[in-house]
Write a structure and sequence with these properties.
alpha/beta; 4-stranded parallel beta sheet; globular
Length: 206
Amino acid sequence: MLIETLTADRALAVVRAPRIDDPGALCRALAAGGIRVVEFTFTTPDVEAVIAAAAADPGGAVVGAGTVTDARTAEAAIAAGARFLVTPGVSEGAAAAAREAGVPIMLGALTPSEVMRAVELGSAAVKIFPASTVGPAHLKDLRGPFPTVPFVPSGGLHADNAGAWMAAGALAVTAGSSVVSAADIESGAWEAVTERARAFSGVATA
């Protein structure tokens, strides 16, 4: 479901906020704008409760967990109902927990060696992070030796540069605070979230 939805939408949302009172409404707002893969990160307080609430009321979204750094956080995310996991780097423990549970994982990588290890560990797609430090040309170069690996750049992407990453060969691009801001989440500005998601998604699928 993860790869199929990413292939269709070409975008996913990474959500970081000090407080998320209505994750279901947020998921619906993002899905209405064309972004149906939603990642709630472990940098968010009480994220397990947030994931559980979103998983119970996904509003058409595929709900997962991000900033998963080890087996413990992977297991906690899966227990909360996460349907996929995302790591900032290569974590053998998280990969093992995901494999055991049958949950797809997107391992983070930046170098060719890290990409190779992520693929060996069964990563469904490889997250290029931090993307802002290398730029789309780095992804284009990685596509040479790894033409069949689905890459998803993350970090510093927005509507103005997402197209360049897609042109470089990304499977999908990551929408962060430029689409889902903590202020909009706090105030429940769901129409604004939907508008920005639609704009970002439009660039990704162009």
